[in-house]
């Protein structure tokens, strides 16, 4: 009961504070003081996130207090703080790219390696903030990890046909201006991608990349360019990968009510017989009224479906659910 009352009054007071902040932010906007307005909106976003975490944090705190009371006395305060941190197991992990499960992932063409055209595909993707505003640009440095697997679930032995691992370090920098420009921010980082297999199926490459974010009404445009870090010829598993995946891509995102539509376009920019590209269309939509689980349909065609198939043209239809977007 104490927890419930604490949560209730905390939420009530926080809501009142948010109302005042919204009024203040609107006043700043009306007076043309966009910098102060952006700071106010940033404070609102932080407070809303704290409200959403109140219940979980309170449960964790009560559980930890019970465990801590049963521990033998420890005099050093820093040691006590370390123990509480271990008990909380709070690593501040957040969703990064989509986290999804496609029980139905269908390749429209038969392959010579004997794989089943119907398989299961899933992806896990998280990020962890490491440090913020170190250089004074409101930037945040993140570690990200994305794991994508293609699982031959409908084969008799149900092997994992391919898994791609993508650890990365990246920096997000918001672009804050008194003028409401379309440009909203930048992101740059280092990305490693590999499939963890031995020769001759081994595939890997390393890239430096730069993204920028633009908003045009409800439409968000995210152009991305990359530079492949060269490898020794003897160590290069896929020396011609850029002939198929090119040097960048463009993502368009259009949220509409509780739906999102996303289009990914990639091309090697060779306008001749060697032209290679990739197109992917994603649609997420409400899943039986859930606020954190979404129905997911994904259609794709072109080169680069996975690392092992980077040089093969694949048309794929996926149906399933997403836990983030």
TrEMBL record:
List, in alphabetical order, the Gene Ontology terms for molecular function in this entry: metal ion binding; phospholipase A1 activity; phospholipase A2 activity
- Provide the assembly information: Homodimer; dimerization is reversible, and the dimeric form is the active one.
Q: Which organism is it from?
A: Arcobacter arenosus
Task: Determine if Nucleotide-binding is one of this entry's keywords.
Answer: no
- Family, similarity comment: Belongs to the phospholipase A1 family.
Please give the GO cellular component terms listed in this UniProt entry: cell outer membrane
The record, for InterPro entries, names: PLipase_A1, PLipase_A1_sf
Q: Per the record, what are the reactions this protein catalyses?
A: a 1,2-diacyl-sn-glycero-3-phosphocholine + H2O = a 1-acyl-sn-glycero-3-phosphocholine + a fatty acid + H(+); a 1,2-diacyl-sn-glycero-3-phosphocholine + H2O = a 2-acyl-sn-glycero-3-phosphocholine + a fatty acid + H(+)
What is the enzyme's main class?
hydrolase
Q: Where is the active site?
A: 192 (proton acceptor), 194 (nucleophile)
The record's subcellular locations are: Cell outer membrane
Q: What is this protein called?
A: Phosphatidylcholine 1-acylhydrolase
Q: Hydrolase as a keyword? A: yes
